[in-house]
Design brief:
single chain, 234 residues, alpha+beta, 5-stranded mixed sheet, 3 helices, 20% helix, elongated
């Protein structure tokens, strides 16, 4: 019989807050547990805690973590999604408040497995700037949390589609959307170069006209300027 180890999985978290909209008053969790099938998952979600256990035959390990929350969550309106890489949770905070939780866990001591999910994080004072469509789609996520001794009751949750196509990398305008902006630097350079050309041409014309006009050559002095401008443009 092969030996099985127990591992504490990495847990990433972010949050939103609202005193009026419960769908924007959330804790976002991602537990990294690759190659764990539905039948080997057990999730026990309570108002003040979450216990997660999942066994992977391919990794020959059992992932286990227990989290005691800073404040209560609304179990009935919390949702989850299981993929081949991890399990993602959208937990609704029970108390609607504008202020963020100061931390995820009840105890203030640091734990090595818990990290901020910067792809989903938005600063408290910048929540209104986050795209509305990112938050609005959360209500359509598949799978409620009640009665979850295991994940067997979460039919249809397998794969990556359980969140209704929501792109979590855009939650909070995190780094996930940044690579598409790589071309912005080139645009800035082109605009700057174009601006230089516009600035240089009048200077050339003014200097030529001034130099030739001082010699009293009149119309004949303009011809070299015209020729010079044509050479510059071509």
């Amino acid at each position: 019989m092969s030996e099985t180890t127990q591992t504490t999985p990495e847990v990433l978290w972010a949050q939103r807050s609202s005193s009026s909209d419960p769908e924007r008053n959330l804790v976002l969790l991602t537990i990294s547990a690759p190659d764990v099938p539905n039948k080997s998952l057990k999730v026990d979600l309570k108002p003040t805690s979450l216990t997660f256990t999942g066994h992977s035959d391919t990794k020959k390990t059992t992932y286990h973590v227990e989290l005691e929350f800073y404040d209560e969550i609304d179990v009935e309106n919390s949702k989850t999604n299981h993929t081949s890489r991890d399990v993602e949770f959208v937990l609704r905070k029970k108390e609607k408040k504008e202020e963020y939780w100061p931390r995820l866990l009840k105890e203030s001591k640091k734990v090595h497995f818990l990290k901020t999910d910067f792809d989903k994080w938005v600063d408290e004072d910048e929540q209104d700037a986050a795209p509305e469509d990112d938050m609005g789609g959360m209500g359509g996520m598949g799978g409620g949390m009640p009665g979850m001794e295991g994940m067997g009751g979460m039919g249809g949750m397998g794969g990556d589609g359980g969140f209704g196509g929501i792109d979590f990398s855009k939650l909070g305008g995190g780094a996930g959307g940044m690579p598409d902006m790589g071309g912005m630097g080139d645009m800035g350079d082109d605009a700057e170069e174009g601006g230089d050309d516009d600035d240089e041409m009048p200077e050339l014309e003014d200097e030529e006209a001034k130099g030739e006009g001082g010699k009293g050559k009149g119309k004949a002095a303009e011809e070299p300027v015209t020729s010079s401008k044509i050479e510059e443009v071509s």
